[in-house]
Amino acid sequence: MKKPIRTLLAASVALIMTASAAAASGDPARGGGIQLDLPAGWSKVAPARMDKTDDPRAVLVIGTEGVQSIASECLVSSYRVPADGAVVVVVGWREAVGGSSFFPLASMKLRRGTFECFPGRGAVGRVTRRDRDFQVNVMVGDRADQATIDAALDAARSIAPAPRAG
Description:
The chain is α+β, with helices and mostly antiparallel strands. The protein has a single domain, classed as Protein Transport Mog1p, Chain A, CATH 3.40.1000. The chain contains two helices and eleven strands; from the N terminus they run αββββββββββαβ. A hairpin with a 2-residue loop joins strand 1 and strand 2. The radius of gyration is 18 Å and the shape is globular. It starts with a helix and ends in a 5-residue tail after the last strand.
């Protein structure tokens, strides 16, 4: 009798832990008036240093463990991406500049040479949210597995206006 109870208890604990991890995977990361779904195991990353007058500027960055900002002349690729990791960098303009239909999020596809200062695979999309234009950029390391790639693209496509305070 004791063995089936332990098995049931162990299964219940495993189910609760799995449910908790699944719930954490949809938590939003917010910045610059927008939000992205934060994949499980990912975190918000401090945007690379910029001048306060820069336009566009990085407004929200999320990435896998090991992603960090680096000194670079390139706005989007100012981040170290681990070989098995990925980063999503959202760049925003202060005002609408147009052109969001040229790079729809639905057709984002990883390609080499997407970003001038990043030799790995990248994808880019443009959207307008609340009358502001945003460019959503994905960069993945050369050894990133399919789950990491899918998480990065799903997070990029999840861009939405952040709830207004108040």
